[in-house]
Amino acid sequence: MRGTVVGVLRGGPSREHEVSLRSGHAVMNALPRERYTVRDIFIDKEGVWHERGIKTNPATVLPSIDVAVIALHGEYGEDGEVQKVLERFGIPYTGSDSFASFVAMHKVMAKEKARGAGLQVPRYTFIEHEEDAEPMVHEVIRTYPQPVIVKAPRWGSSVGVTAPAGYQPVHQAVTGLLNEGAGGALIEEFIRGTEASVGVLENIRGEELYALPAVEIVPPAHESFFTYDAKYSGQSQEIAPGRFSKSVMNELQEYAKRMHQELGLRHYSRSDFIVSPKGIFYLETNTLPGLTAGSLLPKGLASVGINLTQFLEHVIALAMESRKR
After folding, report:
1. Which of 7, 75, 270, 271 is catalytic?
2. Active-site residue 284, yes or no?
3. Residues 71-94: what's their mean pLDDT?
4. Angstrom distance (rounded) from CA 208 to CA 200
5. Does 286 qualify as catalytic in the annotation?
6. Does domain 4-94 have CATH number 1.10.287.3510?
7. Is 167 part of the annotated catalytic residue set?
């Protein structure tokens, strides 16, 4: 039996290429072959599409699939670009549409949405141009407690995130991102507390928006925050469900659902927070969170008895259903 033809998009021209390969591999392994014909669509670091090891292009490969599972992360995958390609060819796909993906991926836009929705966000300064770096960094050093967090506005997986202190290290971190073409540099107040991540899934278990229990993140002792290495070295503890009070857990889940709605997201998402003595602070929302065995969303799903196969079957059904409407 042919079954539904599912194209799994993985790789991509982003700094999260390797993580995406692992997510895509996990997705392909979890899709039951009696229900789906799985097509591995690999996109290389230059953005060239491949199928069965042969270079191809969207116009050739997309008409032969029924639905796409996007296992891309970072630029091109989460910023709405690949979604535009799929929309152009009329292919249903899992995850948020191109516009919502673009907004959610931009940390400044997402923070402004969160602020408008009544959530606390860390104080931040956004620097877009190198000529503004010197005066704006001086102002940050004068007015922010040190260290601060410096990050790219549109990169994920903690790529390029640092926690420098003092003018020279902060200025170097900012100009480094500007020179790498990061689209700006975001300086945030360093909120000390416990990191938490909350997945949201649509139309399941009788709820339009179902929030998973918050996953508590405990970075290794030598890391001051959840760095890229801390995420993927296996040295962090990720506790699902997290050890939060009932009221804090409920608040985290409510905020994750609120951000899913405020950002206009679709099918599923994962929002990240800091639980601090000053309250809960919103950090960002991931429209295409990692799906490897070690990723946060699958851990949240497993804590309520949903495995990766069940999750994928559900979001594929949501994608197919959206095509009919």
Report:
1. 270
2. yes
3. 94
4. 10
5. yes
6. no
7. no
* DSSP type of residue 97: -
pLDDT attached to residue 159: 60
Burial class of residue 152 (count of CB atoms within 10 Å of its CB; 0-12, 13-18, 19+): buried
Please pick, among 16, 189, 238, 262, the residue that the annotation labels catalytic.
16
The pTM is what? 0.91
CA–CA separation, 140 and 124 (whole Å): 9
179 in catalytic set: no
Range(s) for CATH 3.30.470.20 in the chain?
Answer: 103-120+192-324
Residue 169 scores a pLDDT above 70: yes
Which member of 157, 197, 236, 269 is catalytic?
Answer: 157
pLDDT in tens, 10-45: 999 988 899 999 999 999 999 999 999 999 999 999
**216 exposed, middle or buried (CB, 10 Å; 0-12, 13-18, 19+)?**
buried
Q: Which amino acid is at 162?
A: T
290 has catalytic annotation = yes
Which residue intervals of the chain bear CATH 3.40.50.20? 4-94
Predicted confidence at residue 219, as pLDDT, reads 82
> Known catalytic residue: 232?
yes
Does 160 score more than 80 pLDDT?
no
Neighbours of 193 (CB within 10 A): 14
Looking at CATH, the fold of the domain delimited by 124-189 is given as Dna Ligase; domain 1 (3.30.1490)
Mean pLDDT across the stretch 49-77? 95
Q: Give residue 221's Cα distance to chain centre.
A: 24
CATH H superfamily, domain 103-120+192-324: ATP-grasp fold, B domain (3.30.470.20)
